[in-house]
Write a structure and sequence with these properties.
This protein has about 210 residues and is an alpha+beta fold. Helix content is about 30%, strand content about 25%. Strand 2 and strand 3 form a beta hairpin.
Amino acid sequence: MYVAIDKPMTATEFYQYICIIQPTIQDGHNYILPSLTLQTFHKENSLYFPINFTVYDQKLYVTQNFSNDASIQPGDEIISINGVKSIDLFNYLVSHQVRDGNNLHYPEWISQNYFRSYYGFLFGFKGYYLLEIKNSLNVVANKNIAALPLNSIKKRRSESLPLRYDRIDFEKGISWQFDENQNYICLLYTSPSPRDRTRSRMPSSA
């Protein structure tokens, strides 16, 4: 890979070039991210893909629509994005993600939950997205949707699901508190539902 670097690269170009080695390393603790400077720049200045989806049977289905086009509904299939089959885009992101061995669950989870960011890092942050959408009646239509600032997506997501622990505002999944008076450690597990929180006490000597 070093030999192929024959000219100066921007931070984005270098990330796009180097991240392909992650599947070869096969260690989930050794991952490559764009620089914090680049990440911060895009969070503050770039526009993002405003739809969340899930992948089932090699197809992408809308789960949350934060765009300005209210006709796109949960359950609609995203056939293509900007003229490229959506599943091909998704698999391309997966092929550039960190993983443990040959297990694809982790890279698939990352690619689904952070699609809007990794799409931008690898293909550029677009102002608009041309979507080919199939609805529940099997009617296929083209939708040209505007990308949105991350803060706008975050706000709309919070308004639509105020009780959901969201991946943008996620509080700590596991945390602990030490009570010196009672001599125990309180271990806190946060589940997706506020009603399902679990508190586990452990002796301070543990």
